Amino acid sequence: MNNLLTPNPKEAESIHIIREVAAQFERPVLLFSGGKDSITLVRLAQKAFYPAKIPFPLLHVDTGHNFPETIEFRDKLVEELGLELIVRNVQDSIDQGKVREERGRYSSRNSLQTTTLLDAIEEFKFDACIGGARRDEEKARAKERVFSVRDDFGQWDEKNQRPELFDMLNGKIHNGQNVRCFPISNWTELDVWEYIKTENIEIPSIYFAHEREVFFRDGMIWTANEHVYREAHEEVEVRMVRFRTVGDMTCTAAVLSEAVSLEDVVGEIRQSTISERGARIDDKRSEAAMETRKKVGYF
Amino acid sequence: MSENRKLIKIATAGSVDDGKSTLIGRLLYDTKSLTTDKIEAIERSSKQRGYDYLDFSLATDGLVAEREQGITIDVAHIYFNTAKTNFIVADTPGHVEYTRNMVTGASTSQVAIILIDARKGVIEQTYRHFFIANLLRISHVVVAINKMDLVDYDEEVYLKIKADFDALVAKSDFSEDQITFIPVSALKGENIARKSEEMPWYVGNTLLDHLEVLEPADLEPSSVARFPVQYVIRPKTEAWHDFRGFSGMLYGGNLKVGDEVTLLPSLNTSKIKSIHYFDQEIQEAAPGSSIAITLETEVDLSRGDMLVKSGELPASEKQISATICQVNNKALTVGKKYILQHGVNRVLAKVDQIESRIHTDFTGAEDAHSLKLNDIGRVHFRLSKPIHFDPYKTNKSNGSFILIDEAEYDTVSVGFIE
């Protein structure tokens, strides 16, 4: 038995937030992408309710362009922890004619996810969606509340947010509204990595250095395969790379790396002079790319 | 998360154009927390706007409307680390109409940095921001006298502003040792992370050095243990058939196995049987722990109830007086009913009497019949059920509440119980 528990303040705050979600909402769901942030959320949720199971399902909005390693990892995690997983596919939204596949050089399914997500929220009547967004990721994210109220179109009203005072969270909403909940708002990328290392949490293999077929464009390293648009002159080469974020293949760039262990990864992040979102192609579309997406319902 | 790195939470306050964003940008830059791509983005945008310097506010003003107008509308949270410390900075707006957002940003902070433009000295906004720091009982205030480069790094200017501010401190609840003055130039980086050679007359620490010597433990008021029940854990599995864990965050003091406890509101007593932190059983928990507790006896205890050490009971009242700050457009009026959320507990509250509206320049109070957005006043409430509280000055978590509009569900006020 441990003698005295001195809390890790960020972890304790996150657990507090997750318990508030479970207590204040009827039908919460945890948005799970298979990336490091949502994996951390799962561990925090385990801690919040142990020895009981996590009292809400996981929702994966699958773009169909995910790294196969991520999907494999997702299914294994769900199996091991006995979690309930719901998957909804962007391909279905495309087939139903609700969204249109982008074409050309920078085409991506990333922003198409919003429609699939909003449909899933409506289908299951979710009133709270727990997400792994962090305020340090991006400047529009830095403005986000821990409980962020969205209207029945999923819209974020950035100029009229509910004040959040101390650690009191107001999750009271009207029918049709829902709340996006961000338990690791106050964590940095380094915090997440250090936590994964301290807790020895398993993560998908693509976070570690491996050989992959890639091509270079605009100073970024793109995955070479049938889902990613590539021009004839853009040459494919095999390089040692890893990923800092795990999203849709069409908008997640790799970094050159030799990091094969969690220790190496944490060391690399500490030294890095490029931000995590620097490898997100979707954010480079404009200065307000994230804000624009959030306003229409992106998580 | 490195276990030996401490966490310091800071709110910045200052009038428009006092250089808050520049100061934060400078702190990020000097601690190497700004990555190359972000610096490049700042360079690009600064150039596009035709500025001949790096506009760090572009790093912190995250909304289109903010960049359009060149002002900060809502709180941004910004993070930076040094080898010893994790920092969270709440960058709060300077405009009068966004006072509520300053209260929002400052509510979770232990330290306030109040910026003063050396050319302008102490102005009305300085009063207001210091008043809010005082109201929130922020433990430590750093007065950063900025733009010293524009007054030739003149010590006389610094001393004059310090004297004016000291007069303000005398009217407040702060003692002198809670206030630190630092002359800086955020734009040039003087006395931010690097000791200024331009101001040899200043013998104190740089801003960053000063923030690093602060200790989180010294920044919280001391209190006795308060454990509001947040969520009852009932696994109902083979292995944990009879487990009933009361989970929540511990505020104030420590709790340990074997402690005799009183349950509120029932006033039943029991003993702590076990304390759980995930799959570990622990002997004792320190304040700020998110834990689950089991008791030796079967008791009725649910969300919103409170567990305290016997002999250390808080006040339990159906009538309370509080200082409130109105954070919503809709005015608070006598007779109006609200949902009062005290920690994780909710009761109904009716405004019995508005005693006064308090002037945020420390000149006293006046009679009032309603409190409008950004007003601060003393209000008397009648509650549907008693709440179990401590005065805000001894336990911030157990002495504060929010009011929620009954129909719209917006958070409309924040209250500090006396």
Key attributes of the depicted protein:
heterodimer, A: 299 residues, six-stranded mixed sheet, four-stranded antiparallel sheet, 11 strands, 30% helix, B: 418 residues, nine-stranded antiparallel sheet, 8 helices
What does this structure look like?
The complex is a heterodimer of chains A (299) and B (418). Chain A has 299 residues and is α/β, with parallel strands linked by helices. Chain A has eight helices and eleven strands. In chain A, the strands form two sheets. Chain A has a six-stranded mixed sheet, sandwiched between helices. In chain A, strands 9-8-10-11 form a four-stranded antiparallel sheet, with no helix packed on it. In chain A, helix 1 (9-24) packs across helix 2 and helix 6 (189-199) packs antiparallel against helix 7. Chain A is globular, with a radius of gyration of 19 Å. The N and C termini of chain A lie far apart (40 Å). The model of chain A has no long low-confidence stretch (mean pLDDT 89). In chain B, strand 19 (345-358) and strand 20 form a beta hairpin. The two termini of chain B are 37 Å apart. Chain B is globular and about 70 Å long. With 418 residues, chain B is α+β, with helices and mostly antiparallel strands. In chain B, the strands form four sheets. In chain B, strands 7, 8, 9, 10, 11, 12, 13, 14 and 15 form a nine-stranded antiparallel sheet that branches. In chain B, 19% of the residues lie in helices and 35% in strands. Chain B has helices spanning 20-30, 36-48, 57-60, 64-69, 99-106, 124-135, 155-171, 207-213; strands at residues 6-13, 76-81, 85-91, 111-117, 140-146, 179-183, 227-228, 231-233, 245-249, 255-256, 260-264, 269-277, 280-285, 290-295, 306-309, 315-326, 332-333, 337-342, 345-358, 365-366, 370-371, 376-389, 400-405, 411-417. Classes of the chains: A alpha/beta (299), B alpha+beta (418). At the A-B interface, strand 1, helix 1, helix 2 and helix 6 of A face helix 2, helix 4, strand 2, helix 5 and strand 9 of B. Chain A: GO terms for molecular function: sulfate adenylyltransferase (ATP) activity. Chain A: Keywords: ATP-binding, Nucleotide-binding, Nucleotidyltransferase, Transferase. Chain A: This is Sulfate adenylyltransferase subunit 2. Chain A: It is an enzyme of class 2 (transferase). Chain A: It comes from Algoriphagus halophytocola.
